[in-house]
Design goal:
- The complex is a heterodimer of chains A (279) and B (428).
- Chain A is an all-alpha fold and 279 residues long.
- In chain A, 78% of the residues lie in helices and 0% in strands.
- Chain A has one domain.
- In chain A, helix 1 (2-26) runs antiparallel to helix 4, helix 7 (172-205) packs antiparallel against helix 8 (213-235) and helix 8 (213-235) runs antiparallel to helix 9 (240-264).
- Chain B is built from 15 helices and ten strands.
- In chain B, helix 7 (166-178) packs across helix 8 (193-204) and helix 12 (301-368) crosses helix 13.
- By secondary structure, chain B is α/β, with parallel strands linked by helices.
- Helix content of chain B is 57%, strand content 14%.
- Chain B folds into three domains: 3-156, Beta Polymerase, domain 2, CATH 3.30.460; 166-309, NAD(P)-binding Rossmann-like Domain (Rossmann fold, 3-Layer(aba) Sandwich); 341-425, no CATH class.
- The chains are: A mainly alpha (279), B alpha/beta (428).
- The interface between A and B is medium-sized, with 21 and 26 residues.
Chain lengths: 279, 428
């Protein structure tokens, strides 16, 4: 049942991503409308799948890289849907949906392992920690995508080569404010996630901070985003510079999320490949 | 047999002196419709009159006669002899007329291909015709299809997407930078037709505040008055750069009016809000290097011309797509028109079957003596379905043949088999 829901979600999201790509090329509104509906359907399936996982495991389904990626993909689509309600920007899906679909494909290609859920994972603090961090990541994925779109559009206007993307992409102001709002929503989520994480660590491991590589890199990511937010709010950065900075921030975040967990981390790692698991 | 005819002149066939004679009076359309309604040869009519086009769209069973009447109508309307304009007229019939009205409404026949006003004008002409009750079955259907085609062309092709005039191109660029021009501030430096036109377009798109600077302050006051803006002195330009979002420059100055350092130093105080320079002057007023600054965009006259040239080429490409849509819809409409021709025969067959049925029921009932209502009803139902079933297959065949070349033969045979034409029946 759960497996079927996941496969269905994967299929629908892939289909929607394909539809969104066709939409950006062909610019036909019905293509968009259907892609959007399919994406929402995929999102619902995915939500049911995650709810089932949560119920079955008794904790947030992020204990292996496989499920963490799938959860990440879910939060990206979730963040997109929030922005869709606010900005009604059809073309955003053409960038977001392929990213979400990409993560889903990787997730589904990793062999599933029996996850041993230790009693200490069944804590509300862990659920909040993971939930907020991932939602923050979803928002940051939106800042990343909006930044890329901004740079493409800005390049065309600045160099006066108004190519085929010029008509398809929205205005610079719109892209900049999406980038800004996603940062404004994402940063508090990340902060709350890190605080609850350390509270959970105190309960489960007996100390708030253990200089684990994942913790250190999370702090670095947080500082990067804090710097971007500060420059934006206090100094008045916007446009191209803010876009480049948010791309750098997101790369750091991805490294923290995947790289550190695979290669560096101690207890935060996903050792699914060797058959062990961790958070 | 009904023909759809389109007769008129447009910007290509007739010079402006001729068109303005006909389009001059606002009440002309109404007068034209009134006289068309009186004409025997015209069944339904519609009259379109815009600055680039005057044409009558009508249906008639006697197109030759109708054409003469419409030409004399035009001659009365314009107050000029027929020979003065008859060589400037075009006439389209049937499929060609349908195609023509589709193309006109989709703005494929306009002077500036893709301009959006024409559809509204045609809608207005149609509403007027419905008000004056000169539009009937065929024109109603045709006009609804026309609006549908125009909508398809607009949504499925990019024919009216891109601006084809310099001032509009500037407005579109501004929208790609700022999205919403609501509440944006514009500074107009210098004066000139094109710059003022750009300012006017910006104001039309939501810009609320306009300041005007000029070397001669008196001129600034004049221009500002005509836009409801405020005049500023030439020395204030530096201070204005901190506040405005869009700057249009059009001075005769041989030196840069806006230089790199000036813009660079203003950026921090502006908190990097985007600044868009539209430099229409030759020689240029804005130092080209200003474009290298972040969040600052400079478009000079050549850049804008480049944008327009691309857009025109794009429209031409889109027009090809639009022609294909028109062609598709013409074929669909043709099919419908053809079904119209089998309708009278089908109606006659139905009427004849019903007449026979009623006569036979009446005869039988009188011979059957007393029947209760349910028995009567049963007989009614029985005869109805009998008649219905017998004529059903022939009707299906006729409908299917509606758009085939053999249609007329089938119609002829059907009329003979069912003996629908009483007056000819005596010959056989």
């Amino acid at each position: 049942m759960a497996f079927l829901l996941f496969k269905l979600a994967l299929f629908l999201i892939l289909l929607a991503a394909g539809g969104f790509i066709v939409y950006i090329i062909k610019q036909q509104k019905p293509v968009y409308t259907w892609s959007y509906r399919i994406l929402v359907a995929g999102f619902i399936c995915h939500t049911l799948f995650l709810a089932h996982q949560y119920y079955a495991l008794g904790t947030a389904p992020v204990l292996s890289l496989k499920s963490a990626l799938s959860f990440f993909s879910w939060t990206i689509i979730g963040a997109y849907l929030v922005f869709q309600l606010r900005f009604k920007l059809m073309v955003l899906g053409s960038f977001i949906a392929p990213l979400a679909a990409f993560l889903m494909i990787i997730s589904s290609s990793i062999p599933g392992m029996e996850v041993v859920v230790k009693p200490m994972y069944r804590s509300i603090w862990l659920t909040i920690h993971v939930g907020t961090i991932f939602m923050g990541n979803g928002m940051f994925a939106v800042t990343f995508v909006a930044a890329i779109m901004y740079l493409i559009q800005e390049h065309q206007i600045k160099r006066k080569r108004l190519g085929s993307f010029y008509n398809r992409l929205p205005s610079l102001e719109t892209l900049d404010s999406i980038n800004y709002y996603a940062l404004m929503y994402g940063f508090p989520l990340l902060t709350v996630g890190m605080i609850t994480g350390s509270i959970y660590a105190q309960y489960a491991l007996g100390s708030y901070w253990r200089w684990d590589p994942k913790e250190v890199w999370s702090l670095i990511t947080w500082l990067f985003y804090a710097a971007l937010l500060h420059e934006r709010v206090a100094v008045g950065w916007r446009g191209r510079r803010a876009a480049i900075m948010s791309i750098i921030c997101f790369l750091v975040l991805i490294f923290t999320f995947i790289g550190v967990s695979l290669w560096l981390s101690d207890y935060h790692s996903f050792r699914t490949i060797e058959g062990r698991t961790g958070i | 047999m009904i023909k759809i005819v389109n007769l008129g002149m447009n910007h290509e066939t007739a010079p402006v002196e001729l068109r303005e004679c006909l389009a001059r009076e606002p009440g002309n359309t109404s007068a034209a419709l009134a006289s068309m309604r009186k004409l025997q040869s015209i069944r339904e009519g519609l009259f379109i009159s815009t600055c680039n086009r005057v044409e009558a769209l009508y249906t008639s069973e006697d197109p030759e006669e109708a054409k003469k009447s419409v030409i004399s109508l035009l001659s009365d309307l314009g107050g000029m002899p027929e020979h003065a304009f008859s060589s400037n007229l075009y006439t389209f019939e049937d499929t060609e007329a349908v195609r023509h009205i589709f193309r006109v409404a989709s703005s494929l026949d306009s002077m500036v291909v893709g301009e959006p006003q024409i559809l509204g004008q045609i809608k207005e002409a149609y509403y007027q015709a419905t008000r004056e009750k000169t539009a009937g079955v065929v024109l109603n259907r045709l006009m609804h299809r026309t609006f549908h085609v125009a909508k398809r062309v607009r949504t499925e092709t990019g024919i009216s997407d891109a601006a084809v005039s310099i001032s509009y191109a500037a407005v579109e660029l501004a929208k790609k930078i700022f999205y919403d021009l609501e509440g944006k501030r514009v500074l107009l430096i210098g004066a000139g037709e094109m710059a003022e036109l750009a300012a006017r377009h910006l104001l039309g798109h939501g810009v609320t505040s306009l300041r005007v600077a000029n070397r001669t302050f008196r001129r600034a006051v004049q221009v500002a008055e005509s836009f409801n803006g405020s005049p500023v002195s030439f020395d204030e330009i530096g201070a204005q750069l901190l506040e405005v979002d869009i700057v249009i420059t059009s001075t005769a100055s041989t030196q840069y009016v806006i230089n790199y350092e000036q813009v660079k130093s203003s950026r921090r105080k502006r908190r990097n809000r985007p600044l868009f320079f539209i430099d229409i002057a030759v020689p240029r007023d804005v130092e080209p290097r200003v474009n290298d600054l972040g969040n600052v965009y400079v478009y000079d006259i050549d850049d804008l011309k480049g944008v327009v040239a691309i857009n025109i080429a794009q429209r031409k490409e889109e027009a090809l797509k639009a022609e294909r849509i028109v062609q598709e819809e013409v074929l669909k409409f043709e099919k419908w028109i053809k079904t119209l021709e089998v309708v009278p025969t089908i109606v006659s067959i139905r009427e004849k079957a019903e007449a026979i049925r009623q006569a036979e029921v009446r005869r039988s009932l009188s011979g059957l003596g007393h029947l209760d209502p349910s028995q009567r009803k049963a007989i009614e139902t029985l005869t109805l379905s009998l008649a219905e079933k017998i004529i059903n297959d022939p009707i299906v065949v006729l409908k299917r043949k509606a758009d085939r070349p053999t249609r007329d033969t089938y119609l002829d045979i059907a009329r003979r088999l069912f003996k629908l034409d009483q007056e000819n029946g005596g010959d056989e």
